[in-house]
Design goal:
This protein has three helices and eight strands; from the N terminus they run ααββββαββββ. The protein is of the alpha+beta class. The protein has a domain of 90 residues: Beta Complex (RNA Polymerase Alpha Subunit, Chain A, domain 2), CATH 2.170.120. The strands form two sheets. A five-stranded mixed sheet has the order 2-5-6-8-3, with no helix packed on it. Strands 1-4-7 form a three-stranded antiparallel sheet. The longest helix is centred in the N-terminal third of the chain and has 22 residues.
Length: 135
């Protein structure tokens, strides 16, 4: 029983100290500092952003939309919003499968934004697809 505690005592003490050091380090990283406030968010409106048509099963150049632009309200940390530009926000409308269901021409506008930015509102949020004119 005595060997259980005192055999390789140096290695056991080293392991205990190493485990304590790792625990303290991880605890400081994960637990937020007391009194630290989250960064303030700010919002910005971008108007007249051009909408791109995307499709995987047909040529999107043959189709058009009832409106070619949308307004987007985005928010995020102040330091991110200070450098955000309108060309980093990409509105798209997916028209895949529209040939299979030609009666459902209303499509949702999807917004692609950089990391850390949140979309608050899109106006209009739904656009109508105009199919090509058949000769």
């Amino acid at each position: 029983m005595r060997d259980l505690f005192f055999k390789d005592f140096g290695w056991k003490l080293f392991s205990l100290l190493l485990a304590a050091f790792i625990w303290v380090t991880v605890d400081k990283i994960i637990v937020p500092q007391a009194g630290a406030l989250p960064p303030a968010n700010s919002s910005v409106t971008y108007g007249d952003l051009p909408v791109a048509l995307v499709a995987k099963d047909l040529d999107p150049r043959r189709y058009s939309l009832n409106s070619n632009s949308v307004s987007v309200i985005v928010s995020g940390p102040s330091e991110v919003m200070a450098v955000l530009q309108g060309n980093q926000i990409r509105p798209t409308v997916d028209i895949s499968g529209i040939a299979a269901d030609p009666k459902n021409l209303d499509r949702r506008v999807d917004i692609v934004v950089p990391w850390g930015v949140t979309v608050q509102d899109v106006s209009p949020s739904v656009l109508r697809v105009v199919p090509p004119v058949k000769p």
